[in-house]
Specification:
Blueprint: E1 2-7, E2 16-22, E3 25-30, H1 35-46, E4 49-50, E5 53-58, E6 64-69, E7 73-74, H2 78-86, E8 89-90, E9 99-101, E10 111-113
Parallel strand pairs: 5-8
Antiparallel strand pairs: 1-2, 2-3, 4-7, 5-6, 6-10, 9-10
Length: 118
Amino acid sequence: METKTLTCIVCPMGCSIKVQLQGKEVLSVQGNTCPRGEAYARAEVTNPTRTVTTTVRVKDGKEMLSVKTAAPIPKEKIMDCILELKEISVNSPVSIGDVVLENVAGTGIPVVATKNIE
């Protein structure tokens, strides 16, 4: 049996959570003060994901476009995501929510603009 200790990042309380695992099976979660903390801990030890935020170039502009993944992607795909976005440049105008890349790093998750550029 293995025990992992996490700090919950779902809310500002930052609960210290202990997760008992048998292989990849979660046996127990302790230390969370709300159900969201338990859900976070279970996901973090079995399938950690992150929302990636970064910038991409604008072809005809002097500023960078801020972007993010539309949903969290598997943690192990973050570097692949960043490397793909490093090669992207978009044409202006761009509006918040416009899809910049349809399927980042083979995850099926799009990357969207988080800023308007005229």
